[in-house]
Task: structure prediction
Amino acid sequence: MMTQKSNYLITVSFSLVFAASVVLAQDDIAEGIPKPSKQGVAVQLFDWRFVDIEKVIPRLQELGYGYIHVSPPQEYNRSVEKWYKRYQPVDFFRFGDLGTEEEFRRMCLTAKQHGIAIWVDVVFNHMTSVDDPSGYVQMEGDEVVRTMLPQFLPKHFNPRRRIEDVGEIKGWLFYGLADLNTENPYVRSVAKEFLKHLVDLGVAGFRFDAAKHIEPDFFPDVLSVVPHTFSFAEIANEDPTTFSDMLKIKDMYFYDFPLVTIMKDAFAYGGDLTTLLTAHKEGKSLQGNRAITFVRNHDIDRGQSKDSKGDFTDGGFNDSEGRSRFGIGWNESAKSLNRDDVLLAHAFILGWDEGLPYVFVDMPGDSDDCKDDRFDDPRIVAAIRFHNLCLQENDQVEFRKAIPIIVERNMIGWQRGQDRFIVINKAAETVVISSIKTSLKAGVYKNILSGKNVTVPQDGVIAEYNFPVRSAMMYVWIGEVAD
Result:
């Protein structure tokens, strides 16, 4: 079947294999692909021990990562066994079981030696749960009356209130986590001291947990003692307008949850990929210079993973509403995750020209769920190479803006500047494209992962090319056409 379009022709070869998977390829980047001069991608090594992070730093540098997000290092409530124990601190200045302070310092030093910045997850909104029998925080009615916390007394906590009743800032998260009064000068002084200590250990940036539950003026105040550090915040909301007050904080980045919701719909069966090309212009995603673009993080993953008993894990976005909003590739009725959607979404954020891309790697473990989110998946590695090659380089080539060249519900493609391009086909059919008009410079372009070449002539029109089922293909210019 052939359909005439204004600037290109599409021939669709229909396949009977409607659930085909992306074909795995070699681990190495194709021969002849240049090495980038910059590393502009972050990786979250969720719940990894510091010594294990240190071991993989050389490999992360080799693959093109420039930032590592590590889990909260402080001591937590040891009576909590599940993953969210990391987000129930009891002592800011004592390290938990991810490693010692010296191991943390060595990890930061090794990262610096390899040109990688360490970002640390910090929890300032709350301490541990008051419903836990450990007794760290004791209540009478809605008031905190006793604590066994080294840094905080009862007067440093807000009265217990439901978020639904009093608004997101003053309420208690999950109605059980002891809510710090972050407007209190002493509470802020502890936060400042903690951030300074982390910087002294070698930290270069911070991720603020539950940031939408903290008043916006808290952040510039506490960050004032650690200038020249990077910071980003968690605001789990799909509506960009809810970020307005927080966006007033200078230089702070945010998880782009609005973009995640757009990607979930776009990559799902029947979704429209073209919405991804216009999300920012239509105010449906965050500004690229303030956005951490991502596909999954620990909250999303923990809602879609199984424990040793085969049950879906507690906490995070494990409720059906959260999974339905943020779970790219997730089918709530079937309780299944389509990893192809996840990988194609990674290709989008790493190929597009907005935001700082971020890759999630699950907590170590023996289950299959803990092995699927990898920093070295060859398809993600290829997309990282493409992303880094599109950054402004040492040869003074300017940042390569995205220029759409294919706009279809199931397939989109765009140039990055004049010497890179990417095509994503989410359909269960092989698509043959002919006569694609571009402004690419003439020459030979190579697919970063497969090594297959495409020739672009002087007029910029790509004659014809096959795009396989559910695939992402990234091309870079490698030279002139041989005479």
